[in-house]
């Protein structure tokens, strides 16, 4: 198929039939009827069940494990501990998965050392789950306990610049100008400390791994993971397997939000037990065990802004200290966003980490941006009040047309001004009385707030396969996963438009290491990466079929160049002469072949990346109502205006933004993983005491997709999985200040902070 002058059009007709239109998820029926199977639901004839025994201390050593009582329970097959576990690889590099930060990765049951609360100390394997769970309660573990350090504030002074940078994570740029001197002489100054509480991902589906031992001695592994290739690499390296000895699948994932980027310890334990017992094993973590690994770590931030009386920024300083584990140097991009968002001549950005006796934090939806943008966007609201500027006007006055953190490279596209304009109009911002506590509805104070959102627009190396059969059916796919974002659907739309087929003639396969390799599903890069690969594979198939068609006897396409081929309605026709056409089915049957297949690669455009920086932007408008007597905050209205290039499916895209906004409401008002620093344990490790937004908390959310043309990738897309959450917490915080006159800089905003 020929490329048209518009790279954002998939069909050679110059118009898209399916791409750009709202389509329901093709995987929806399977999910709502129970036909979709998740990692902990796949069966095997000889399936055994593992149950994890978790440590009750956060730091120290195991002095004894008494398992005889558990082993005596009928149906118990094995109690595996550090003292009796089978040998595996031991070097760091074997345990470092594709997205691991620098350091020495955690190894379950490796030795007697305890490095975080809830660490697995034993695995009880039994014939059924209930027996395994009961027997696990009989395992007695004795410890030599040490006092844990989990309070970030207490070790802030020991923070350090990580010597080895995490791959793909940009360290802060070198300062420019003289931020400290400029701040000292600035007519208007705003300075404050900001923090967000620790948060856990809490996907609906718990982490689970089912290892099926096949008759030929190979392994089929169903793992909760956002990229099966990562689990595959990890298990191959740790257990000394050949790549073809193991197949990893994850066709469906019940929420990840970043918790499934890295293989978690249940995958290691399930494979360990399967190899030891030579039978299939499933390990499913409990809800409270979901607090024993990756989480969004607290960051202590300070922002200092200096400005002229008219609001023009003269200096910007943004510093952050974030916690990491004692064994890995986890890193995020937190402070850089300030330098990207605003034009300023004197800027200093610093980021350091401090060691804590916790599990290694992990990427959680829009990692770093959620944290850093909350701080800078709250500070900008404070500056708006300090200078008497409208919060939108202040942001536009300091609007950046290029990325100062990347040597001043221009943005490939940036329709943030349109986001502010369209969002403000939809929200009714012009009716806002800027005076705090000036708006009221009955007994409730009303507040309106705004903030900017930003996220990287990335594309990763990916591959995909497309196969057309004589019955006119097309199968496409790769190893990436659909983590609930609608990947099955958008890839089907792309494939259907590229070859001019109906969507119901296309089958999309994902989450299988036997398919062409693709990156983990995260970072909002899946649509650009896997979507482009699918499009290229389908175009290759189209060109092959076209050549077959042109070679047929009395072909209507004889002597026609490929750049005149039009694929539509299951046929190939000639541009400008639609009467000359032939169906794909006819061509395949006449040629007497059983399939036409192509595998294609797609990767970042190096020329584009050398010239431009690519980001998704948003403007978030929020209305809150605050009960003056009770201090209760309700988010009653949200307008989120998004500039994210081409929107492949407005229906699934809107769902992504809705989900992001809801998580942002959680960050602002509800979510907090509470550490008892005396024992180093998260205490509210359940959904009864760790509060996430529920239906009763959510009111009107309006999503606007601002038209934006971008050429960072052939699809013109920027990704939508992360941007919906970024800036939402700041907009809520700013709205609460407008309602109450009380500035809360430490999230979540709880009743005690307002009364």
Please give a handful of descriptors for the protein shown:
single chain, 7-stranded mixed beta sheet, disordered N terminus, alpha+beta, Aldehyde Oxidoreductase, domain 4, 31 strands, 5-stranded mixed beta sheet, globular, 17 helices, 755 residues
Task: Describe the overall structure.
The model is unreliable at 1-8 (pLDDT under 50). It is built from 17 helices and 31 strands. A seven-stranded mixed sheet has the order 3-5-1-11-8-9-10. 24% of the residues lie in helices and 25% in strands. The longest helix is centred in the last third of the chain and has 25 residues, at 526-550. The chain has 755 residues and is α+β, with helices and mostly antiparallel strands. It has a domain at 28-36 and 461-603: Aldehyde oxidase/xanthine dehydrogenase, molybdopterin binding domain (Aldehyde Oxidoreductase, domain 4, 2-Layer Sandwich). Helix 12 runs parallel beside helix 13 (526-550), helix 13 (526-550) packs across helix 14 (584-591) and helix 16 crosses helix 17.
